[in-house]
Design a protein that fits this description.
147 residues; alpha+beta; six-stranded antiparallel beta sheet; flat; transmembrane; transmembrane helix; membrane
């Protein structure tokens, strides 16, 4: 009986709280720039070409994100350039057939996955060069052994 009471007491000591982040504003990220999405709707006539889309979701528990992320919009949501506005100042975000204005806030904090995006093709080419050189060396050694 004593063990049962100790077990019940220990169960009450286990924390049951869940920690989640509350975002200050809805944002999207495009090429290293964070944009705050406003409630201002943009006329479809002012929308020009697509400049990107949401590719990852921001983590609600840690607040970390990388790439073209968003804390609200699903993956695949498109970003558009607005006529007469530089994309460094503002972009339009499509949401269910309407376009919302997103204004530049800040540069993205550093994340190692942002470097991986640019580094992958370079590492691939270096790997190809190493394989080619090793193959040529083996071929030369084989030809020398035949003579």
């Amino acid at each position: 009986m004593k063990k049962l009471w100790i077990s019940i007491l220990l169960l009450f000591l286990i924390p049951t709280t869940l920690h989640a982040l509350s975002w200050a504003y809805t944002f999207v990220v495009l090429d290293g720039r964070v944009y705050e999405v406003t409630d201002e709707q943009i006329n479809a006539a002012l929308i020009s070409k697509s400049v990107g889309e949401v590719t990852t979701q921001a983590d609600d528990h840690t607040g970390k994100f990388y790439g073209n992320a968003s804390n609200h919009f699903p993956i695949g949501t498109k970003y558009f350039k607005m006529e007469g506005t530089d994309i460094n100042d503002a972009i339009a975000v499509e949401e269910q057939g309407t376009y919302l204005k997103a204004e530049f806030v800040e540069r993205v904090p550093f994340h190692w996955r942002n470097i991986l995006y640019y580094l992958t093709p370079i590492l691939f080419l270096i790997g190809l060069i190493i394989i080619y050189r090793a193959r040529e060396k083996v071929k030369k050694n084989y030809q020398n052994s035949l003579s």
